Amino acid sequence: MKSLILFKNNLRYYDNPALYYGSFSSKVLTAYIYDEVNTDKKIGGASKYWLYKSLKSLNKSLNNNLLLYKGDTIKIVENLIKKHSINNVYIEEPFLKQDIEIYDKLQNILKKLEVSLIPYNCNLLWNPNSIYKNDLTPYKVFTPFYKKGCLLNQKQPDKPLGPPQLLNFIEIKNQTNIDDLNLISNHPWHKKLSNYWDISEDTALEMLADFIKTKAYDYKNGRDYPYLNKNSRLSPYIRFGLISVNRIWWELDKIKQDKNIAHYKSELGWREFSYYLLYHFPTIQYENLQKKFDGFKWENSKSKFNSWKTGNTGYPIVDAGMRELWETGYIQNRVRMVVASFLVKNLSIDWRIGEKWFWDCLVDADYASNVASWQWVAGTGADAAPYFRIFNPMLQGIKFDPKGEYTLKFLPELKDVPIKFLQNPWESNIELDYPEPIIDYKNSRERALSKYSNLRKLS
């Protein structure tokens, strides 16, 4: 019995159901296909860099037996089946619209070839097709989805499987090369990411262990303070499947449960909810879930957007966040909400423009979470933030970075500003090499409230 094990978004050796169960075949091939043919949303530059490193990590675990291809998944799989007389294809169960379309096409072709297509859920704690309200409609609010739909009505997530039992590879000469995938851009900004991230499956497991040992019981409150480094920073490893959410869930279950552990689990639940929404409402990748926003008048100033993305708005906590993104491919979660709110509500720039920028720059740019989170901040999505919730960047900076440690790390030009003026340096009367605010915050807030309030009255 010969099997092809196909990797996609779960690039790990341990706790990978498709790899684990496929390994029981007498002979196997393992392959990854970088497919830009069957998608209209190609992964961004930072993600390509992470993908490159992740594939290297996986290939090392597979003793250089990972076949690497670029092109049409359907054609490449069909060719591999015919060339190597494959009987079974093990694949990650798809939950995104275009992945489902690829799966359906594969299934049709494999039926004709009398080859079995065997899917396993490698990506989520719970299958989104098993969770519904009592009236059999999908949830649109996170809390009942998570507490009732998942925790109450679903069985515990599957336990992690460990490594594959045995891998007997079909004896072929691997002539594929990762560099042929063209994942590394000529743009030099990617090179600095290696200063901040060690990208491997081993590192992901070590980071989880360190988080549980040193940070987990400070998580609920500590996660809001960017200078404290209480976040797990596992999101990019989860995004590319270097560690499974099942393993994280069960490792957390082994320790004493308190509000911090429950809160971290709820963050995993938000990721589940994001995929759940995209599964049941696939158009939200590009469209407002709440249709009343389709007529919302975004201003979409190119100059203001450029100031935002380069960290030159004149609002220090916003600029620090955007410069952290450009420097490291990551933004701390509290600051991530602040910069997103500033873009859509204070600058009146369409959430899709911000989502696209994050998609290209974040190392943890996740298909579902990126869209769901931007729609949440903008008020256009499910379980959206109230229209009147507009983050005040000065107050956010003062409260969550009281000594300016985070702000000054990314805005060293403000080092001479007294701490009481750090988040409003234009009031310090110090000559600075730093921009004046591109908007008046109070006026922008009132304008946003008026626009959102009018929209609410019309709905």
- Overall morphology: globular
Determine the mean pLDDT: 94
Query: Unreliable segments (pLDDT under 50, ≥5 consecutive)?
Result: none
Proportion of β residues?
5-15%
How many DSSP E strands? 5
Counted by DSSP, the helix tally is 18
Element order: H for helix, E for strand: EHEHEHEHEHHHHHHHHHHHHHH
- Strand arrangement within the widest β-sheet reads 3-2-1-4-5
Largest sheet: 5 strands, parallel
Report the end-to-end length measured between terminal Cα atoms: 60 Å
Residues in helix, %:
40-55%
Sheet/helix structural class: alpha/beta
Question: Can you give a write-up of this model?
Answer:
The protein has helices at about 15-20, 45-60, 75-85, 95-110, 140-150, 200-215, 220, 235-240, 245-255, 260-280, 300-310, 315-330, 335-345, 350-360, 365-380, 395-400, 405-410, 440-459, and strands at about 1-5, 25-35, 65-70, 90, 115-120. It has 18 helices and 5 strands. The protein is globular and about 75 Å long. The termini are far apart. Helix 3 runs parallel beside helix 4 (about 95-110), helix 10 (about 260-280) crosses helix 15 and helix 12 (about 315-330) crosses helix 13 (about 335-345). The longest helix has 22 residues, at about 260-280. Strand 2 (about 25-35), helix 2 and strand 3 form a beta-alpha-beta unit. It is of the alpha/beta class. It has a 5-stranded parallel beta sheet, with helices on both faces.
